[in-house]
Amino acid sequence: MMTISLIWGLAVVCGIWVIFGIRRRKAGEPPLENGLIPYLGCALKFGSNPLEFLRANQRKHGHVFTCKLMGRYVHFVTNSSSYPKVLSHGKYFDWKKFHYTTSAKAFGHRSIDPSDGNTTENINNTFAKTLQGDALHSLSEVMMQNLQLILRPPGLPKSESSVWVTEGMYAFCYRVMFEAGYLTLFGRDTSKPDAQRALILNNLDNFKQFDQVFPALVAGLPIRLFRMAHKAREKLAEGLKHKNLSKREQVSELISLRMFLNDTLSTFDDAEKAKTHLAILWASQANTIPATFWSLFQMIRSPEALKAASEEVNGALQSAGQKPSGEGNAIYLDQMQLNDLPVLDSIIKEALRLSSASLNIRTAKEDFTLHLEDGSYNIRKDDIIALYPQLMHLDPEIYPDPLTFKYDRYLDENGKAKTSFYSNGNKLKCFYMPFGSGATICPGRLFAVQEIKQFLILMLSCFELELVESPVQCPPLDQSRAGLGILPPLHDIEFKYKLKHL
Ligand code: HEM
After folding, report:
1. Where are the membrane-spanning stretches (predicted)?
2. pTM
3. Is the distance from the beta carbon of residue 291 to the nearest atom of ligand 1 less than 6 Å?
4. Is the beta carbon of 438 within 6 A of some atom in ligand 1?
5. Could you list the residue range(s) of the whole structural domain that residue 398 is in?
C-alpha cells in the first residue's frame, strides 16, 4: 500500500515538473536543452567537462543554444566572430547583478551595488583609478621590490645562496606570488619582520583552504558546510580589518583609498569592509598564481622559448643599465621597458591561452532580441547570456595545432605583437580573452601581466633553472575550477633552482 502511494506521489511530482518545471522553446528563441534533472538541468554534464559539453551542443544545435543550469536558462554564444556583436547589446545587460551576488555569497559581505543602498562607492571607478594609469607605476615598482626581497633576501649567507634547491614549481610560484602580491596590496609591517613573515605564511595556508571550496561557493553552497574553509575566511578577513591595516606601511592606493573613503552613507562596519578587501585579495591572487606557474613551466620546458626569453631579458637589462649582482642590488625596469618585451608577452599570452577557462556572464534586464551576423534570437528577461572563450582559445582554425605551446604564436614576422587572427577567412576582433570582456573585463589585467613579467625576469636573470624530469609531461588542468579563470595544474612538477654566481 505504502509503495503504491509512493509511486503515485512520484508520478504526480514528475507530472507537475514536466508541465510547469521545464521551459518550452518559443518561436525565435535559440534551441533549448532542459536536461533531465529537475532544477539542475544540464549542470552535472556541464560541470564535469564544460568544453566537451559545449562542443557537443555546438555540433547538435549550431553556434547559439540555451541550457538549463541550476534553475537558470543560459544562452551560450559559441562562435568568436559573434563576440563583439554580443557585447554591443550592452544596454540590455545587467552585468552587476551576477557579479555582486556571487561576491557577496563567497566572501560574506552584503551587496556592494550602490543601488542596494549599503554603500555609495562605485567600486569599478575605484579599480580603474588605482590599478591602471599612473597608479600602475607605483604598484609595479613596489611589486618588483617585494619580489626581490622574497627571491633574494638581503644578507643570505653564501653557503645557503649557492646550493641547488628542489621544490614543486606550483608550490614555489604560489609562495612567492602570494607573499609579494599580499605585501604589494596590503603593505608591510616593518616593525616586526619575523612576525610579518609568520603572518603571511599563515595567511597563505588560510587562503589555500578557502580557495579550495571557492567553486562550491560560486555554485551556491553555503560556506557553513565547510567548517575549516569558513574559519580560514574569517581569519583572513580579520587580518584585513582597519585596525590591522592601519599599522602597515606602503599600503597600496587601492586599499588605502577604500580604507579612508568618505562614504558617509555606508552601512558596512569594519568587519564587513574587511570582507570586501578579501574579495580583492582573492581576485588579485587566484588567477595570477596559476598564470605565473604556467608561464614559468612552459618557458622552461621549451628550449627555444627559454633561449629567446633569456636573450630578450639580458638585452633589456643591458640597455636599461641594470645588472643583477651577487650583493642583491635591486633591478628595476620602468613601465616603458616592461611593456617593450614582446617575447615575454607572447610566452605569457600563450601560457594563458592554454590554461584559461573563464565564463563571461551577463543577465538580460528585459526581453530583447539578440542580433548576430548569422541570425537573431529572442532572449527573456533574467536569462543569462554566456561566452566561454576556451572554445575560441582551442579552436584549430584560429590557433593551428591548438594544444601545442608555441612561444612565438603571438609574435609577427617583425618580432612585434601579432594581432591578426582569422576564423572563416575573417579577421577576428576578439581572439584572446583570459581577462574577460567588455564591462566586466579584469581591471587588474595590466598589473597582472607586469607582475608575471617581473617574476620571469628575476627567475631568468638571477637563477639557474632546471626541470628535475626532462622531458617532462605537461600536467593536466584541474577542471573542477572551470569557469573561474586560469586553471591550476592537477599535480605539481618538481624543478631545481640555484642563485647564479653574479
Ligand atoms: C593572470 C591574472 C588574472 C586573470 C587571468 C584575471 C582574470 C579575471 C577575470 C576573467 C575576471 C572576471 C571578468 C568577467 O567577469 O568578465 C576578473 C575580474 C577581476 N579581476 Fe582579474 N585577473 C587576473 C589578475 C588580477 C589582478 C592582479 C587583480 C588586482 C590586483 C585583479 C583584479 C580583478 C578584480 C577586482 C575583478 C572584479 C572586477 C569586477 O567585479 O568588476 N585581477 N579577472
Report:
1. 6-22
2. 0.94
3. yes
4. no
5. 116-360+388-499
